[in-house]
Structures are given as C-alpha cells and as structure tokens.
Design a protein that fits this description.
This is Asl1-like glycosyl hydrolase catalytic domain-containing protein. One of its GO terms (cellular component) is fungal-type cell wall. Keywords: Signal. InterPro entries: ASL1 (IPR053183), Asl1_glyco_hydro_catalytic (IPR024655), GH (IPR017853). The chain starts with a helix and ends in a 5-residue tail after the last helix. The longest helix has 17 residues. It is built from 8 helices and 7 strands. The N terminus is likely disordered. By secondary structure, it is α/β, with parallel strands linked by helices. The chain has a 7-stranded parallel β-sheet. The structure holds 2-acetamido-2-deoxy-beta-D-glucopyranose (NAG) (3 copies).
C-alpha cells in the first residue's frame, strides 16, 4: 500500500515538524479575583490555547466553569443555574473549605459542608456534572470526612486538587499520591503553579524555569488518562497582595501585557 492514504487520513499530524496537540479540554486557566473580574473574558480572549477558565466568584460567562462559594447564597445561585434554561456543563463545588489562609482555621467543617450542599444535590438539574470540593491540603482528612458525612460521593463526576511545588517531580508525586487514595473517578487539577510554600516572593523562580515546569506538567498530565483538566494558575497577575504560590506564573501582568509565559502556554503541545 502506498503511503498516500494514511497520510491523507492523518492529515497534518503526519507532516514532519507539525506540532502535537494537547487533548481536548486539558488546557485551562485560573483568573484570580474578585477585583477586575469583569475583565476576565477579555483576558481569556488572549489565551486561545485554553478551553475553559475559572474564577472564585460565581459566574456563567462563555467558557467559564462556575464555582460555588462556601455559603448558602452561593449554593442558591448554583441551584438556579443548574436548573435554569442554560445549565453549565460542569459545576465546581467548595473551594478550599478546609483552610482559611488569613485565619488558619477551617472555613466549613465537613459536617457543615454536607448540610450546605444537600439542597443542591437534591436539585441537581439534568445536565450539569458536579466536581468534588477541593481541599487546600489535598491529603487532609477533610474530604474523607465530608464524603462520610454527606454519603454523596456518587454525586460527583471528578475529584479536584490544587498543587504547588517548586519542581515538577514533586508535583507529580503529590498528584499520584492523591490518585492512589481516590482512584475511582477522573481528576481535575484546578490550580497548579511552580510556586511553593518555602520560597517566598519576591524571589520567584525564573521565567524559563516556570515555562519548563508548565510544559512538563501538561505533557505528563496528557499521558495519564485519569487527568481530565489542568488549570494553570494564573491568567492574571495578582497585584493586591503577595501570593507565594503564583508570583512567577502569571500569563498577563498587571498592565495586561503578556509575560514570557503567555506564548508557550498558547502553544503547549503536551509532548
Ligand atoms: C458549623 O455550623 C454551626 C451551626 O450552624 C456553626 O455554629 C459553626 O460556626 C459552623 N462552623 C464551621 C467551621 O463551619
Ligand atoms: C520550592 O522551590 C525551591 C526552588 O525551586 C525548590 O528547591 C524546593 O524543592 C521547593 N520545595 C518544595 C516543597 O517543592
Ligand atoms: C534559565 O536561564 C538561566 C540563565 O540564562 C540558565 O542558567 C538556566 O539554566 C535556565 N534554566 C532552565 C530551566 O532553562
């Protein structure tokens, strides 16, 4: 058989030098708010490499995956959205309920979280897939206790973690450790960056090291069929305060100018 047919079938991907592509939906981005959140759709338009975005304030802008806040009013908004005329495909549930960074305290106990989420799980709509709460410390007992309290593990389509490690091998090890514990559903990584709790800003890792981390973690994520989405943190620079986790991983700076990371992000090949 000639080579013509397979080449035609495979199209671009067989042409020498053509880039491999990340699988559909894998590459996504986080915007840190709430300040300037009205600008997130415009910022997202500079990130054609990403499929979806999230932020911490509930919203249903195009391509946004909504997240519920840790209170009753937010749960009510989510119930309205999933039962409304345009229900979102996915809904992220509680964000880091186990740890308040300013007080060091638990925001919602597993018991309180299970009480709070119950009305939503009882009126889930017909379309939206729910993503499990994401603890700040993914290996803490919060999630185990939450599932025990609410008896609602089956209500979730995927687990969810946040990972910050200065080197990619440590990041992979943490993700693997979580997956070893919770391996019966796919995983979403809804925050990741090469910052970590030991190296403080303003001495962030150099940009080229961050680019390498980003390319490696997406390539690795692509190779694991149980990892469905990875949200790079962050699309926008945080200018209101210092966040050690993301001090050199923003795609747009405070003046909306691309950083050295934007172009590599838009051209990730996951290979
Ligand atoms: C849990 O709920 C109880 C009863 O409403 C409330 O008193 C308590 O402050 C809540 N605590 C947390 C951490 O969720
Ligand atoms: C934090 O980052 C530094 C510099 O990249 C690295 O040497 C160290 O191993 C990292 N620590 C953790 C816990 O990832
Ligand atoms: C980043 O650039 C510095 C200075 O040019 C170089 O020493 C270092 O090896 C580079 N690191 C990576 C990961 O490419």
């Amino acid at each position: 058989m000639s080579l013509v047919l397979p080449l035609a079938i495979c199209g671009m991907s067989t042409i020498e030098g053509a880039m491999a592509a990340c699988s559909d939906g894998l590459v996504n981005v986080v915007f840190n708010g709430p300040s300037n959140s009205a600008q997130f759709p415009q910022k997202f338009s500079q990130m054609p490499g990403a499929s979806n975005w999230l932020t911490f304030k509930f919203g249903t802008e195009p391509k946004q995956i909504p997240m519920i806040g840790n209170d009753r009013a937010a749960v009510k908004k989510a119930i309205d959205a999933v039962n409304g005329p345009n229900p979102p495909d996915y809904l992220l549930t509680f964000n880091e309920p186990d740890h308040d960074y300013t007080t060091g305290k638990v925001i919602l106990t597993p018991h309180n979280a299970s009480v709070l989420i119950k009305p939503l799980l009882e009126s889930p709509g017909k379309h939206t897939k729910f993503i499990a709460p994401v603890p700040a410390a993914q290996m803490s007992s919060w999630l185990d206790n939450f599932f025990k309290e609410c008896q609602c593990k089956d209500s979730f389509a995927a687990y969810n973690v946040h990972i910050y490690r200065g080197n990619v091998e440590d990041a992979k090890a943490e993700i693997n450790a979580f997956h070893d514990k919770f391996n019966d559903k796919p995983l979403w990584i809804t925050e990741i960056g090469p910052g970590n709790r030991t190296t403080a800003c303003p001495n962030p890792p150099p940009w080229n090291q961050t680019i390498k981390f980003m390319q490696e973690i997406y390539a690795w994520g692509q190779s694991k069929e149980w990892i469905h989405k990875i949200f790079w943190n962050t699309g926008n620079q945080i200018t209101s305060h210092v966040d050690n986790n993301v001090c050199n991983s923003y795609l747009l700076d405070g003046n909306d100018k691309p950083t050295p990371l934007l172009n590599p992000f838009n051209h990730l090949t996951c290979s």
